[in-house]
């Protein structure tokens, strides 16, 4: 007889199962791909595979990432998007080899982002979109190697200037946030829009046709900016489990 009244258990990941999920990327990296496997609890057995370069735990039902994840000292790429995570572990700051972190489409709040994130001195890409952040931690401003930052679809009313001053920043996605006072951040938001669509180069480094194309794109952005007075308040996706259409588009852009 089937048992009733109990919620279904997530898939159990054994060491052998995990070993069979290791793939070699085109550039020779070892990636452990445990995405879309219905995992509800972080599988501790994978800590024995701490020589991997990339770890994909996306599209599961994880609520917590343990401090022991810092044992992956060689990890360069960590994908946690589309889970139920509301807090990142403080030990993540010890993963100094990390270049890419995707924690989008979770339940992260600003308090759930540890100060220790500022120790990730080599990180290039951080995606925190589709969460519940009401402010951006200033610790991100200490990550001087950042090239891309995703903060789209949150509850942000302002962006710290320290983010815009990151020396290597090429892309900053802040779409669909309820900026309450756009008139006070007009210049900064204009910079965000340009960063979101253009790579930063000097005019002297472009050929004639490319320079003209960039100037036309800039004029188009300015025209759009003058027509749209503000950004509408976003809906809160409190029960989002897997990416919806917006999330899917975001993942295509950020993966």
UniProtKB/TrEMBL annotation:
The Disease resistance R13L4/SHOC-2-like LRR domain covers which part of the protein? Answer: 32-132
The cross-references to Pfam families, in alphabetical order and at most eight, read: LRR_14 (PF23598)
Q: Which SUPFAM superfamilies does this chain map to?
A: L domain-like
- rRNA processing in keyword set: no
> Does the keyword Cytoplasm belong to this entry?
yes
Q: Which domain of life is it from?
A: Eukaryota
> Its function?
May be involved in the regulation of spermatogenesis and sperm maturation.
Record key words, sorted: Cytoplasm, Leucine-rich repeat, Repeat
Compartmental location:
Cytoplasm
The protein's matches in InterPro entries, at most eight in alphabetical order, are given as: Leu-rich_rpt, Leu-rich_rpt_typical-subtyp, LRR_dom_sf, LRR_domain-containing, LRR_R13L4/SHOC2-like
Q: Where does it primarily localize?
A: cytoplasm
Cited PANTHER family? LEUCINE-RICH REPEAT-CONTAINING PROTEIN 18-LIKE, PTHR48051
Q: What is this protein called?
A: Leucine-rich repeat-containing protein 18
User: Which cellular component terms (GO) are annotated to the entry?
Assistant: cytoplasm
Query: To which species is this protein native?
Result: Myotis brandtii
